[in-house]
Amino acid sequence: MSEEEHAPEQNSLGKENFAPIEEILEGEHTGEEVKIRGWVHRTRDIGNMVFLNVRDPSGVVQTTIASDEFEEEKFEDLKDLLVESSLKVKGEVAKDERAPGGYEIRASEAEIVHASDDFPIHEDQSVEHLLDNRHLWLRSRRMRDILNVRSTVFEGIHEFFRDEGYEEFHSPILTPVACEGGATLFPVEYFDDQVYLTQSWQLYAEAAIFGMGDIYTIAPSFRAEKSRTPRHLTEYWHAEVEGLWHDLDDIIDLGEGLVLHLVEKVLEKNREELKNLDVDLEYLEDLEGPFPIITYEEAVSKLQDEGMDVSYGEDFGVPEEKKLTSLFDKPVFVTHYPKEIKAFYMKRDEEDESKVLGYDLMVPHVGELIGGSVRETKVESLERRLEEGGEDPSIYEWFLDTRRYGSVPHAGYGLGVERVLMWLCDLDHIRDAVPFPRTPNRYRP
Ligand code: 4AD
Ligand code: MG
Question: Residue 5 pLDDT more than 70?
Answer without folding.
Answer: no
